[in-house]
């Protein structure tokens, strides 16, 4: 079968039976070609570098380096590489971490073969295929972490400047010097910031300002 215009797919999966089944499915389907099959990220990273595919199909629970850690490396080295997760894990943390690391889609291993092939096409065309259970969790996560539209409205521009300095690593003394005000003025602003953000410490204020994108 000619592979000139076939979709090039790399597989990163530590279970030999699953890996071989995926390879046979891809190579046995017109329009697809497996150009690399790896049992670990330690093998995949140099292997994919030698022949970068259109999409990498990646498991999470790999020996040594995890799939999530590995895709961070792959995305740094090959920013244009499209990555589709294929895993048994459906918990919020792994889903969130994988998508933040650079995965464009997230499928569970129980995905039917026809849907898997369809998803490979979809993801290289700019889509974000997800198993239904995963999609529901992503929607729920979005609702939880989405900041309110008026998240920073209660803070004055000067209070936001103070917060930004703290995020950048300043303490009260160096922030005061940067703004040409007294340390007591910084403390005054921080008391107001604590009250408005409903926090009780500098670290909580910094974390909340980043989480809600008050400081960018």
For the largest beta sheet, what order do the strands appear in spatially?
2-1-3-4-5
Shape, principal axes of CA atoms: elongated
CATH architectural arrangement of the largest domain: 3-Layer(aba) Sandwich
Stated plainly, the CATH topology of the largest domain is called Rossmann fold
Radius of gyration, in angstroms, nearest whole number:
23 Å
| Strand portion | 5-15%
Profile the largest sheet: 5 strands, parallel
Order of helices and strands: EHEHEHEHEHHHHHH
Low-confidence stretches: none
Secondary structure tally, helices: 10
**Structural class category:** alpha/beta
Written account of the structure:
- With 216 residues, the chain is of the alpha/beta class.
- It has 2 domains: 7-145, Response regulator (Rossmann fold); 157-211, Winged helix-like DNA-binding domain superfamily/Winged helix DNA-binding domain (Arc Repressor Mutant, subunit A).
- Helix content is 52%, strand content 12%.
- The protein has 10 helices and 5 strands; from the N terminus they run βαβαβαβαβαααααα.
- A 5-stranded parallel sheet has the order 2-1-3-4-5, with helices on both faces.
- Strand 3, helix 3 and strand 4 form a beta-alpha-beta unit.
